[in-house]
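User: Assemble these into one structure.

Assistant: Restating your components, then the assembled model:
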Amino acid sequence: MPTTTAVPGGAPPPPSAQQLARGEGDAPAPGRSVRRYRPEDTRAGYAFVSPWLLGFVALTAFPMLASLYLAFTDYNLFRAPEFVGLDNFADLFTDPRFLQSCQVTAVYVFVGTPIKLAASLGAALLLNTKHRGQGVYRSIFYLPSLIGASVSIAIIWRAMFIDDGVVDQIQQLVGLPAGGWVGNPDMTMPMMILLAVWTFGAPTVIFLAGLKQVPTELYEAAEVDGAGPVRRFWSITVPMLSPVVFFNLLMETISAFQVFSSAFIISGGTGGPAGSTLFYTLYLYLRGFQDFRMGYASAMAWVLVIVVGIITAVLFRTSRSWVHYTGDVR
Amino acid sequence: MRIARKASGVVAGAAAAALALTACSGGSGEAGAGDALDTEEEITLNLAWWGDDTRAALYEEAVELFEEEYPNIDVTTTFVAWDDYWTARNTEAASGTLPDVMQMDLSYLRQYGNNGQLLDLSEAFDVNLDVSGLEEELLAAGTVEGAQLGIPTSTNTLALFYNADVLERIGMEPPAEGYTWDDLNDWIVEATEKGAGEDPVVFGGFDYVGTLWFFMQRLIQQGIEPFTEDGQLNFSEEDAAAFLESTAELRDSDAVYPIERTKQIEPLTGFMVSEQAAEMTWDNFMAGYVAETGENIEILPMPSGDNGPQQFWKPSMLLSASANTDQPAAAATLIDFLINEPAVGEIFGTSKGVPATAAQRDAMALEPGSVDEEVTQYEEDVADLVTESAPLPVEGFGAIEAEWKRLHEELLYENVTVDEFVEQWFAFAADTMPAAE
């Protein structure tokens, strides 16, 4: 802070309260440099980020580049990689198991994600109403998300859906055809989607935060105009919430493409029964670590990156027509 | 400023440490496996195996004995289940950091050997490693193109197990002596019919054609060696189709344990939960079956084929040393101890198969009626039937074996026909195995 003595007609007046608040009061007087550029600062900066930088280069950037290279090679971990051009990519599209894994993953993403988002929005709407003990409910609904991706839940899920498991017993009680889901290729996908939907806590919390942001005046005004609850939901809640819906849609779609551990546990690492849980990432793993086709697995990884990239780009493109940001002038 | 200097120092220190650590694994290569073991030098060996907690406890006991005898050697141990074991070893092989001594399987011996990952242990013969207690054919099973890459610790052979208590409940006799594959199929159908009234329902057997080893067993009985000397398939698509078709009636009439149920109880099998009367597998599974079912399990030779009841010994597992080990002499010494020391034989019993050396076989406490006694007795009984040496699996065997099992699952779910199975499997094998040189 420059010390200022009030010299009539000389030095500038002392900074105002607003200037101080804006941090402008400290502006160096002309010709008096308070802070110079010091190369040591740069060095210190690099030293501080070096753990992250090392990790990024060694554990992320280098492996990514390596896998990009391997995608164009035949590599079995033992022999040196042999360059084969685009063979791996060409092989992908004649490999029935690859196509099966694409189909399984597509069903999971395009059926599972909307259901999960609808469920989480529904839960968020319920949790947004005023009730006694609402905080407890919020915690309970969030709980599955904390443990849903874990190995133990996948094991419990499996146990619930086998012959004479909880689900089978309930089915018998209500007189529906009995039998475990785990051994039935037609029922494993519903089982996997249910597991995903059950862990709706993370999008629910985000939806809930979004709902809290919707100004109550809008609802009050609509109510005065005679709008019922359904009309209020579609005309106020949905448009006001659309940025949050978009965010959740992106995150959940991308994470659905990456599902691995639950399928690995439930199918015992095989993608069975009969390939019905052969998710893309699981098949990638099997090609790499069971068949030792690392080049092939790398090619698969890059195809996944490109596909997820394209889908994300398409979502962004379509978002212009259905996502409304407050303050947008159209 | 001061902070910056300190931080740079830390970074530099870390980098130096990393260099030092990597330098450690550089290897000195002074002493070979054939040089006498230095009993003064402080040596650390890594030992890895696949298996469960029970086996781990046995290994730890054996390692403790070893460390008592060689106080200058410290053995660090790791173990995981079968599947993860190979994932870990493959990754290590790629980076040249395999454990000094590791449990090895016949399915992978050629793959590791062909790629120069394993130490030729013949250098250590008569110095650090005594193999005089092993039969010649058995020892030969651990060689690839003249190099002794693994030492068999124990043997097993295929067998048919039946659950005598289950048979009594459903009123069945076990298959008669000298039974054939066709007899077995008829027996399974009959047992399934008789077991239909039980709760839970009892099946005669599983659709055994899903195991590649049984196909190899059957080929050998037909006088066909499954693989050529240079590691190629030596059977035709017709052979494979005929084998798969041989149980088509069992599948069509639902006489075999249902795949839907199998998938749900994995990694157990129908036999292990007493819902299946008989099952074929390796004879060292006896201990597991008895423990799992708690019932009276009996053991029979495999069914006879067209040319008779020939069977083969397979080294149930081998011990190998890494080609990159810094301590080849100590590694050979550890292998020597594990295969020859009578006390180690007593510790393991037949849990890894019947011990390969007479010294260890004799050391087992064979109480009459015990699992060890029955398995050892079985191997003595079938010794006359063993006229063939074990087929040395081709490189990539692990993968083609897994693919066979997977396609069989698709077959049971009726997603593929036998012809599609055969076509897809041969295509996969051609893709996976190295081409003939």
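The interface with chain A takes residues 1, 3-4, 7-8, 10-11, 83, 87, 90-91, 93-94, 111-112, 114-115, 117, 258-267, 396, 398-399, 402, 406, 409-410, 413, 415, 424, 432 of chain B (CB under 8 Å).
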